[in-house]
Amino acid sequence: xxxxxxxxAWCWWLIAxxxxxxxxxxxxxxxxxxxxxxxxxxxDYRLQVAERDRRATVKARTEEQRRQAVADEADRKAxxxxxxxxxxAADAESRAVGLRGxxxxxxxxxxxxxxxxxxxxxxxxxxxxxxxxxxxxxADRMAGDLATALERSRIAGLACESVIDGVRRP
Length: 170
Known about the structure:
Number of domains: 1
Number of strands: 0
Largest sheet: none
Low-confidence stretches: none
Number of helices: 3
């Protein structure tokens, strides 16, 4: 232990200080390495999340475009059917106008025939023809309107079904 006593006390303090300082420096270097590793992992994680977000966005847009295409196609078909319906309704209306003209002609013929028949019988017959003719005209108008409304409703329902079926399909 002689040689330990030869070293002054302040040297021992200096040696202890150097050892403690070196240990602390070592800890700092290790911590910086771990920090750099954690930063690199965080950057990788952020890239992965960004890539997943991008893929999800692309997938969502693709699905939205597919659904919109299905809806547009159903809308186009419904418009074609509406156009066809309008053409058929106009044709039916023109036929109905002809039918109403025929009813008016029959009424006029009935009143001309009444001149030769007794007045009382003629009036009863004329009122029946007028009433029946009016009922027939009104029934024809209502049937046309109802048929058009029903066909429009059917076309709209089929278009909705088509859109729903198309959207549900992957």
